[in-house]
Amino acid sequence: MSTTSATASSLAIDGLVSGLKTTDLINSLMGVEQVPQTLLKNKVTATTSFVSSLQTINGLVQSLATKAAAAAKPASLDVFSATSSSTAVTVSAGTTASAGSVSFTVGQTASAQVGVTAAMSTWGSQAEPLTFVRPDGTTTTVTPASGSLDDTVAAINASTAGVSATKVAAGTDASGTKTYRLQLTSTASGAANGFSVYRGTADQVTAGTATNVLTESGAATVTAASDASVTLWAGTAAAQTITSTTNTFSDLLPGLAVTVTKPSTDPVTVTVARDTSKAQAVASGLVDAFNAVAGYYTSNTGVTSTTSPTTGATSTTAGVLLGDATTRSAVQRLTSAMSTPVNGKSPSSVGITIGKDGTFSFDADAFQKALAADPAGTQAIVAGVAQNVSDAATAASDKYTGSITTAITGQQSVVKDLNDQIDAWTDRLTARRATLQAQYSALETSLSKLQSQSSWLSGQLSSLSSQS
Predict the structure, then answer these.
(1) Which terminus in the chain has less CB density within 10 A, N or C?
(2) How do beta strands 100-108 and 314-318 pair?
(3) What distances in angstroms separate CA 71 from CA 77, 384, 387, one per listed residue?
(4) Which of 197, 198, 189 has its CA nearest to residue 224?
(5) Where are the chain's structural domains?
């Protein structure tokens, strides 16, 4: 395009020749053309909000399904806690624990072996091997990169000897040279993890020609490796001592972990009993999870009215889930599952009661009375209710076949299709604007030419008149 035509086009599109507001006219026409695309965008916004609400309630239903599945287990209320009669002994009950009690005395705690070498400035004049020997006869030979203490420490710590080494300052020798001791510590406690360490190879240890580092002058075993021990029924003919390489005993009672911290000559009693508060939390947690679903559904299906303070006009807004059959059906099924009797007994008999608003309340006193009077029966009712809820919640929220999950997938496809249509409209509108701009540009150019011709004719007529 030439400079002249470009200038004419610019002038024409601005309406400088015709006097028309060409840009405003095009924008007005495009506003009408864009109405279908605007409607599509509004539909995308509404559908996206709907999908978000579906995803939120689906997440709440999935959480309910998880809690219900746990509560539906045959022993979900068999929750136990442990207590100790001494602060020197701590206890923890696991999932396999059962009621019981046992007394014992603590003979000693477990310890790791700690030994220190004699003071020295180097390990040797050259790389000198050292061999660690375990109580069971297992040997590990370590060869440092050089005779330096730093290389010796590095080699020990990188080995599989089960010993860690630390270089500790030990002053200076007679010549003023700095000396150090190597502190050697077994990486695990227990008598089986003790060690001896020799200067030399395993063969030299076997031959008896290697030197025991911890028996050299100035060296010592600071702490001997030892097992923890407790004695059951101490002072009786049935007394029995149990040992552990650590300070924790996991087999005194089923599912019970006992940790000792110091010796005790006085008997320590540990007791495992049903934890009624934790059992209650199983049932109340099921109610809370259901109410979270019901509460969200209610708040997103209501209709709210607002009145403008300036005009007095009233407008109403419907909840995003109002009229949605999928979520309505899911909530109805969950409500039915929570309230259906189990073995002819109502859930209210264990404290689970439905209210007029469709939510449930939990009566802790009723639950505790039922649990105390009939633990097995209470377990059966809670597990039965939970299984019903688990089935209904899974049917709604399963990640592959759940009804709400399927609805989410369907609505996401709708959003994708709408966005494709919007993109197509964007291309169509871009082409339409270009067409209008070209048409008005041509109009302005034509008017400009007509004005030029008119001016030329006027000039010619004026010339003829003057000649006459």
Answers:
(1) C
(2) unpaired
(3) 8, 9, 8
(4) 189
(5) 34-79+275-304+315-441, 80-109+227-274, 114-223
